[in-house]
Amino acid sequence: MNKTVNITVSGLGGQGVLKVTDILAEVLFELGYDVKKSEVHGMSQRGGSVSSEVRYGEKVYSPMIPEGESDFLLVLDRTQVEVAMPKLKAGGVLVTPDDAPLEKLANPKCANIMLLGALSRHLDLPEEKLLAAIRRSLPEKLHEMNEKAFRDGRNGK
Amino acid sequence: MDRKMFLSGNEAVALAAYDAKAHLGTGYPGTPSSEILDEFSKAGGSAQWSPNEKVALEVGIGVALASGRAIVTMKHVGLNVAADPLFTVAYSGTPGGLVIVSADDPGMASSQNEQDNRRYAVAAGIPMLEPADSQEAYDFTVRAFELAEEFRCPVLLRLTTRVCHSKCLVVRGRTETSCPPIRYEKDVKSNVMIPAFARLAHRRLRARLAAIAALNDEKNEFNLEFPGKNGEFGVIVSGISFQYVMETCPDAGVFKIGLTYPLPLKRLQAFASRYRRVIVVEEGDPVVEESCRAAGIPAEGKAEMFRFGELDVGRVRRLIAGDLTPETPPKPGKPPELCPGCPHRKSYEALKALDCIVSGDIGCYTLGVLPPFEAVDSCVCMGASITVGVGLRKALPEAEARRVVSVIGDSTFWHTGINGVVEALYNQPPTGHVIMILDNSITAMTGMQENPGTGRKLDHTPAPKLDLVSTLHGLGVKKVDVVDPLLEQDRLRAVLAEDLKSNEVSVVISRRSCIIAAARIKSYEEKNK
Question: Which of B196, B343, B383, B408 could cross-link with B361 by S-S, CB 3.0 to 4.6 Å?
């Protein structure tokens, strides 16, 4: 595979944007791709817009995705769709909270993992590897809740 | 040891420092550098937060005088605070490897300016390495210690936001090193910078830089050259911009500089002679461009518009194409704000109710400048709230002078705010002064680091706790009130109103834990009982 695949995840500070890209990047790393992930820390994280990007392929250079070149855009907060849209390429896949059965969430904090599940329908990544990465990224007491959220998201509305 | 890992640049620097057996890591938190020391500590290294960057660098100098390896970390503006020891340790050097990390923030994701610290390398005469990804961050950190020991000089490792916080693959242990033993050798001519010795040291410094420049002009691991498809187009580049250039123009010849100061000018000259058009692509100031020009290397620079903000693939495309049409600004997202339930909110409500002129400082609480508070009137640098407030009070007519309050956080107080209290007491304005310390018991903005007032060390284990109240009393502040901004809102306003009327220097400590850190702080306290 020569082409670099680009995934953007956007939302607000505190919604777990970085957690989602951490999980994705870890799985891609395990699968042997060249992977880069970018994010910004500090003042901008305090409740403001947050965006994180993952790129993978045979050889990746820039850690950031150029405007209009993201193949996938996952937005965790409806208010951020308009802000994040310029990243998405024409014909790219957009996943928003409208694409997941959020009413099934036991805890609203798992919304990011449910939406990762919804995004994963479009990605060619093994479900078991995603679930394992989710478990590794969270304390044990949160595993069951998040695995369910992921599966519900992956099964769709 | 040879392990493939997925690391941020900061994590890579930390693991490299650990693998290079650095004796001590010290610094002051500042985005984008903050994670380095935490990760160094987690890896097993001995790490500490110093009260400020000058202190951190001086402690590092001491370690390196004992032949130890020291890594000192800070953000770009932190190097301003540490500039005094920096310029003189450049002369004296140290027998041990002293590596100073300057994490620059082009684009100001979380900073008050976007100064280009490559200028410090030139101004102080200190060799500078500039990694372009996490692998180089690892390799260059290890080599930085060796370079420092070989030439008996400090080495600056310049990172930028995207190198610090982007993650990519790293082979750990690829670069191996052996660490010299700790020993002390009296050497006053090298280590005591009185004028007679410093004059000699300055000459040694210039000779050392000439030797490093010669090394840089040989083939070495720091600089990479990629031949172009043809002789049309060559790019000279350093740091993260390398990634954008490789993506933007795969057919161009590329000279990637890793050892940015002193530059490999002879090699750059030879590179430039092989291409019809040569351009320098660099974020920030035209540092490499100016040096090339001065050396007679026919390289173009970038248009002035690209001096502002960080570069990316899109901007590098435009820069190379010479496209000067105005750039579309990114869609404004939601600006950051003080967290719901943040104790600073209540303090700002009180300041606003009393119509104060607020001389602000650096931290989460700088966000008090934005709506709904709009309560901060100035913000310059760490610790400036108190001193700028004193200046305002000295110049303004009495009625307005009385409205001036300096607002500073707990960590910032220990950083350089404490000097401002000395100034306020010694050179007291006629109306006195009112200082409000927003004590949320943590260094919040940069990611919840400990500080001298929290009673815990960098790794959250117990440490002596410096007490604000007795410190202030000890300095000579007679009136110090500790108020809970949430539970004592009326009292906070009453105390402030009273202090604003007096002609003394008084301090209000508005004390309540950061709402994000509160649970964490409690668990540390439980563990440390």
Answer: B408
Find, among B419, B528, B512, B523, the residue nearest to B465 by Cα: B528
Q: How far apart are CA B428 and CA B199, in angstroms?
A: 40
**Token digits for B271?**
């590179």
Considering only the beta carbons, identify the residue of A25, A51, A82 that sits closest to B167: A25
Asked if residues B393 and B370 have their Cβ atoms less than 8 Å apart, the reply is no
Q: Which run of H or of E encompasses B391? A: helix B384-395
pTM of this structure: 0.96
Give the pLDDT score at A1. 47
CA distance, residue A51 to nearest chain B CA (Å): 10
Question: Could B338 and A46 be called an inter-chain contact, meaning their C-beta atoms sit closer than 8 Å?
Answer: yes
Which residues lie closer than 8 Å to B292 by C-beta, 6 or more apart? B236, B263, B265, B268, B272, B280, B299
**Cβ burial A7-24 (10 Å sphere, 16+ → b, else e):** bbbbbbbebbbbbbbbbb
pLDDT-derived band at B331 (thresholds 50, 70, 90) equals confident
| Rounded distance between C-alpha atoms, residue A63 and residue A56, angstroms | 10
Write down the pLDDT at residue B175.
Answer: 67
DSSP secondary structure letter of residue B76 = H
Nearest CA in chain A to B365: A43
Instruction: At B486, list the tokens.
Output: 């949430």
Q: Does the distance separating the beta carbons of B335 and A36 come in below 8 Å? A: no
DSSP conformation class of B213? H
How confident is the model over B24-49, as pLDDT tens digits? 999 999 999 999 999 999 999 999 99
> B1 pLDDT exceeds 60?
no
